[in-house]
Amino acid sequence: MRITVLAGGIGAARFLRGLRAAVPDADVTVIGNTGDDITLHGLRICPDLDTVMYTLGGGIHEGQGWGREGETFAVQEELAAYGAGPDWMHLGDRDIATHLIRTRMLDAGYPLSAVTAALCERWKPGVELVPMSDDRVETHVVLEGRAVHFQEWWLAMRAAEPAQGFVSIGADTARPAPGVLDAIAGADVVLLPPSNPVVSIGAILAVPGIRDAVARTPAPVVGLSPIVGGAPVRGMADACLTAIGVETSAAGVGRHYGARAEGGLLDGWLVDTADAGTEVPGLPVLDVPLLMTSVQLTAAMATAALDLAARVR
Amino acid sequence: MRITVLAGGIGAARFLRGLRAAVPDADVTVIGNTGDDITLHGLRICPDLDTVMYTLGGGIHEGQGWGREGETFAVQEELAAYGAGPDWMHLGDRDIATHLIRTRMLDAGYPLSAVTAALCERWKPGVELVPMSDDRVETHVVLEGRAVHFQEWWLAMRAAEPAQGFVSIGADTARPAPGVLDAIAGADVVLLPPSNPVVSIGAILAVPGIRDAVARTPAPVVGLSPIVGGAPVRGMADACLTAIGVETSAAGVGRHYGARAEGGLLDGWLVDTADAGTEVPGLPVLDVPLLMTSVQLTAAMATAALDLAARVR
Predict the structure, then answer these.
(1) 3-state SS class at A131
(2) What gap in Å lies between CA A143 and CA A141, rounded to an integer?
(3) Is A212 within a domain?
(4) With a cut of 70, which residues of chain B have pLDDT below it?
């Protein structure tokens, strides 16, 4: 079975771990969000790709869901001693090694997809991890009278200042990375995991050609709600949804993606049991527990998503 | 008093600490060797500049004489886990912060001299530290049938394979960094500390214009022997001297620099008491203890060098 997943960071990474446990023999391609990418201290940082890679490769800090286990921060402390900002994104020492290799390979002319494949040779995530694009695309947040990089809004400001919208800088001319469109068109199932619908899944869909590929794939497309009981399971997706006028609810996000039959993207929508009764026009909605507190529970979620896909096929 | 010092790494750094203690009010300009510089993992590394900066700034690992005190190696270990070589130059985490800032500033277009000044704003070495050149100059070692970067020969091979010579790549078109020639021409005293005469002092003198500036300065030029009792005080200078046909002795190095009166560089030569009786044609030779085992003893060496300079003026 060929499964293609559009993935953000922590939520997607945990979902993928469950998916891999549910169908260990499946051929999984992960199209990773690179809209959160940023260059700090000359290092090219791809938070979502790394979170997926570290999580599936067994190197993630389980407690926080991002970064490396057993991480230290000597380089960051030293940069601070030099007064070299910014200090709102704490780069761990181990993590910096990943960024050094990535930056060096990019500088040498390798596309991000090749760099990601090279890094995955060590981590062996058990999926094919492909960035949404080899071109630089960065999500910026429109605030009152200015715009800041998504990471600054998310990490430094904790999304406290209301966003008026998001700009995907570079998306207009970006092309999907090699293999991305084929992975969507040739999949048996396409899944939208419980990632941030705006700055993760939305950023991927903003790369010209990807939204269209999802809308046209012969494969069933099933999504899992990142909103449970009217709030994000984790993170601050509500701040993103509010900014684009989408209600922070399982129904709101389902309607935002929309049914393929009505010009949207989905053939099925999975919500948490807390949201049983959710209705989205034109879409079969199934409720199952959507809390990823263990690999087993997450595998059950993944199985439910695949079952729903089989039903709507 | 304006003192200009041509400096390599550890030996020069320790000498400079003594010099600063001996004449705290002097205006000291240090022309640092950058021939040992290397780019590893995309990071621009200037070992000699950093050794001087850390030593005078109080950040040096006293025991080993290079690198930072309390250093950790998480990034290097992680690079090794990725299989990202080479592994023969162990970069410490704190040290990497320095290299990150330097690399970022160089990439942004700042010359190395400006970068060095910026780094010194933190360390406050109490001297003006200027690289010999803003242009890239790198010492490579000629071996049987091939040439390798000096650092590879020095660190990976421990200078065990005999050098047939040294090539200062880039030196032919390099220009002295801003201020270098003026610091030599306008000094009251020019000192050659007990640095490696070949790959440290020799690399500085290989930048067109610098040797000439030393030969023509109205200031007295006094050198201190890095060879005591026929052996280098530390390091493997003997392997370098042998490669260029210079005897590893206080007399050999003195003759290598030569008396200004006879077309050389020196007006005075300081050797260790173990080498009392050393004769160099045309040059006053003074013997004093040249072991830099404490700042006090080193200050006495520096005072002796300045006294000799005053005598030969």
Answers:
(1) strand
(2) 6
(3) yes
(4) none
End-to-end CA distance of chain A: 14
Is the pLDDT at A249 greater than 90? The verdict is yes
Q: Is B211 on the interface with A (CB under 8 A)?
A: no
What is the model's pLDDT at position A36?
A: 97
DSSP string, B90-127: ---HHHHHHHHHHHHHHHTT--HHHHHHHHHHHH--SS
Q: How far is A7 from chain B (nearest CA, A)?
A: 24
Query: B55 phi and psi, to 5 degrees?
Result: -65, -50
Question: Mean of the per-residue pLDDT values for chain B?
Answer: 96
> Which B residues 63-102 touch A at CB under 8 Å?
72, 74-76, 78-79, 81-84, 93-94, 96-98, 100-101
**How many angstroms separate the CA atoms of B112 and B137, rounded?**
12
Please give the residue range of the domain that contains residue B285.
Answer: 2-136+171-312
* A151 is a domain residue: no
Same domain? For B277 and B262 the reply is yes
Q: What is the amino acid identity at position B68?
A: R
A 10 A CB-CB count for A155 gives 16
Specify the pLDDT at position A85: 85
For B300, other C-beta atoms within 10 Å of its C-beta total 18
Q: How confident is the model at residue A87 (pLDDT cuts 50, 70, 90)?
A: confident
Tell me: do B155 and B299 sit in the same domain: no
Q: Do B132 and B164 belong together in one domain? A: no
Three-state DSSP at B264 gives coil
Find the residue in A nearest to B68 (Cα). Answer: A78
Which residue does chain A place closest to B101, by CA atoms? A41
Is there a contact between A206 and A212 (Cβ–Cβ < 8 Å)?
Answer: no
Q: Do A72 and B81 touch (CB under 8 A)?
A: no
Instruction: Tell me the C-alpha distance between A237 and A245, whole Å.
Output: 12
Asked if A41 and B72 come within 8 Å (Cβ–Cβ), the reply is: no
Task: Please state the domain count of chain A.
Answer: 1
- Note whether A290 and A194 are within 8 A (CB): yes
Dump pLDDT digits (tens) for B137-181.
999 999 999 999 999 999 999 999 999 999 999 999 999 999 999
Beta bridge partners of B148: B141
Alpha helices in B125-236 (DSSP H): 150-151, 180-185, 201-205, 210-216
How many residue pairs bridge chain A and chain B with CB atoms within 8 Å of each other? 81
Give the confidence band of A142 by pLDDT, cuts at 50, 70, 90: very high
ipTM confidence? 0.93
